[in-house]
Amino acid sequence: MDSSLIPLMVVLPMASAVLLNMLHGRDRAVRYLTLAVGLVFLALPLAVSYGYHHFGGYVRDASFSRLAVGIIYGFQAHQRLLAFTLVLVAYLAAVSYLGSAGKLSGVYLGFLMLGLGTCTAVLLTDDIFNLYVFLEITLISQTALVIASGTEEAYKAAVKYLIVANVCGNMLLLGIALLLSAVGSLNVTDIQGYIAAAGGAFLRSPVLLTACALMLVSFSYVSGLFPFHNIKAEMYARAMPHAAAVMQTQTKFILLGLGIILLRLFPNVGGFRPLMLYTSMAAMVFGVIMALKQDNYQHMLSYHAISQAGYVAAGISIGTTAAVMGAIFHAVNNALYKSALLIGSECVKHQAKTTDFKGLGGLIQPLPALAALVLVSKLAISGVPPFNGFQSKLLLMTAAFNAGLPEVTVVMILVSVLTFISMMKAFHLVFMRPPQAEAVLAETALPRTYLMALAILAGLCLLLGLCPQIVLVYAREIALQVGVAQ
Amino acid sequence: MQTAAFICGGLLFMVGLYAVVFKDNLIKKVMGLTFISDSVNLVLIAMDYRPGAVVPIILPGVNPADFASTAAYPLTIALVLTNIVIAVATVSLILGLCIKIHGKAGTLSARRIWPDGQ
Fold first, then answer.
1. CA distance B47 to chain A (A)
2. Contact across the interface for A129 and B76, Cβ inside 8 Å
3. How far apart are CA A139 and CA B92, in angstroms?
C-alpha cells in the first residue's frame, strides 16, 4: 500500500453511504454491506502508508517554494490512530444497531458512514477551506443521526443545533477569508510558514486577530465547549445512545484536528491560548456540575462528554509537547470509555424501557456482565488506575503543572473527583439499589452484539491503561511538531 | 466600491445576527441565517475585486500574460459557490425540521418550543 490510497479513507465511506441509501428497504443487503465495508474501513488506516496526497497542483519540496495551489491530504501516525479509533467506534455502534433494530434503515446507516468519511477528511486535510466544507457536512450528518430517533425533542434540539452551527460556520468561513486575504493561501502549512516568518507586527494586525477570534468561536462550537456546551449535550441526549457514542467521538477528534491546526497557525498570537484554556476549563467544570444535576442516565453521560472534551481542549491550549500528547491520548481514551458507557445506557434502555433514574434499579441481578463492563468504563472515565483514563489524565495534569499552570492541575483533579462521584451515584441508581416499584424489565434477552461491543471497548480501556505506550508512540511525532515552549 | 461592499457585508451580518438572536419565529431566524451567509459571500467576492477585471476563463487566442494581469481572482468565486451549496443544504434541512416541529408542536415560536430559554 502507498500514500496515494489516502483519499480512500474518505471516498469509500462516502460511497458506501450513497450505496446504503440506495439499498434502504433491503434489510439483508444493508446488513451484509455494513458489516463488510466496516471491516474494510478498519483495515484501511492500518494498511495505508504515511505521506501526502496532492489533489492536482505540485509536490511540495525544498526546491519549489511557491504556495500550494491544490488540496493536500497528510497522513501521519496520530492520524492513523485517530482514523482507526473513529472507524472502530462507528463499526461497534453499527453492529449494535444491526443486532438490536427490528427493521433496519439504510438511510440511517448511510449517515453514519457519511459522518465517518467527512470526519476522517477533517483529520487528514491540510486545506483550511476543505476542512470547513467537511466540517459542515459532518454537522449535517450528526443532525441526521439525532433526527433518526424520531422524537419531538430530537427535532427541537436538531433545529437549535443547526441554527447556531450555521452562524458559527459562517464565522469560521469569514475567518478563513481574512486569512486568505492576508496570506494568499488556504494551505495550512503555507499559512503557518507565512505567519511564523512575518512575526512581530503581523501577529498584532487586526486582520489576523479577527481571523483568530472568529475561528476560536467556531472551534468552541464544534467542540461543544463553553458557552455552547448545552446545545451539544442536548444533541447527545436526544440521539440514540450508540449514535451519541459516534457523535461524541467525532466531536473529540474534530476538536483535536481543528485544535492542532489553530495551534499551528496561532501559537504566538497574544491571548489565543489563554482564552482557549479558560473556555476548556469552563467546559470541564460546567459539564461535570450539570452532569451531577441530571435525573436521566443518558443526559448525565451527555454532560460528561462535554466535561471530557474540556480535558482534551485544555491539553491543546497548554500546547507543550507533553500536553498535546496527553490531549491525543485522552481523546482516544474518551472515545473508548464514553462509547462503552453510552452503549451501556442503550442496554439499560433496552431492558428497562427508560433511562430516567426514577424508573431504574436492581439491574445487577439480571445483567451481571453488563454491570461489570459498565463499571470498568465508569472507573476508566473517573481516572481510577489501572484503566486508560488514569494514564491520560495523569499525563495532562503533569503537563499542566510542568507548564507552570498548577491551578489547571487542581481544576482537573477536582473535576475528576466529581466525575467519580457522579459515576458511582449513577451505578448505584441503575444497578445496585433495589428495583423501583414502577420498573418493568423487558422479557427479551439483551442482544449479544451489545455485550460484544462493550467487552471490546472495556478490554481496550484496560489494555491502554496497562500499556499506554501503544497509543503514545502514535502521538509523539505530531506533539513534537506542534508543541510550543513555555 | 470595495469598502462599500465590506460595509454592506458587515451590516447584513448584523441584521442577520439580530434576526437569529431576537426574532421569535423560526422562519424569521432562518431568514437571518441567509442574511449572514450572504454577507460572508459578499465579503468573499469583494475581497478580490479588481476594477475592470475580466472573467477568469481563458478563451482561445487570449495572451496568458495579458490574462494574468487583467483576470479576476477565481479562488474566492469557487469558495462562494461551495458556500452557497452548503447554505442551501443547511437551510433546507432546518426548514424541513420546522415543518416537522410545526406538525408536532403546532407552533414555530422559539419561546414556546424552547421554554427554558436555553
1. 7
2. no
3. 14
Q: Which of A235, A210, A212 is nearest to A224 (CA)?
A: A235
Residues A306 and A286 sit within 8 Å (Cβ to Cβ): yes
Distance CA A225, CA A218 (A): 10
A167/B90 Cβ within 8 A: no
Torsion of CA A285, A291, A292, A297, to 10 degrees: -160
Sequence-distant (6+) residues with CB within 8 A of A84 are A42, A45, A46
Q: Chain A within 8 Å of B19 (Cβ-Cβ)?
A: no
DSSP string covering A83-129, please?
A: HHHHHHHHHHHHHHHHHH-SS--HHHHHHHHHHHHHHHHHHHB-BHH
> Are A167 and B20 an interchain contact pair (Cβ–Cβ within 8 Å)?
yes
Closest A-chain CA to B107: A156
Judged by CB atoms closer than 8 Å, whether chains meet at A162 and B44 is answered as no
Nearest to B33 among A156, A158, A166 (CB): A166
Please name the residues in contact with A442: beta carbons below 8 A apart, sequence gap of 6 or more: A350, A351, A352, A353
- Nearest-angstrom CA–CA distance, A13 and A34: 10
How many CB atoms are closer than 10 A to CB B59? 8
Which of A175-179, A351-355, A463-467 bottoms out in mean pLDDT, i.e. has the lowest? A351-355
| Cβ within 8 Å of A, B 55-94 | 75-76, 79, 82-83, 86-87, 89-91, 93-94
* ipTM (interface predicted TM): 0.92
pLDDT over threshold 80, residue A65: no
Whole-number Å distance between alpha carbons of A268 and A442: 57
> Quick check: A173 and B83 CB within 8 A?
yes
* Predicted local confidence at residue A64, as pLDDT: 47
| Residue-wise pLDDT tens digits, A2-24 | 667 899 999 999 999 999 999 99
Q: How many CB pairs under 8 A join A and B?
A: 79
**So what's the pLDDT on residue B57?**
82
Which triple of cell numbers denotes residue A66? 511557491
The ranges assigned to domains in chain B are 2-113
Are the Cβ atoms of B101 and A159 closer than 8 angstroms? yes
Residues of chain B with pLDDT under 70: 117-118
Model pTM score: 0.93
What is the pLDDT at residue A211?
93
Angle at A231 between CA A227 and CA A234, to 5 degrees: 140
Q: Please give the mean pLDDT across all residues of chain A.
A: 91
Q: What is B2-113's CATH number?
A: 1.10.287.3510
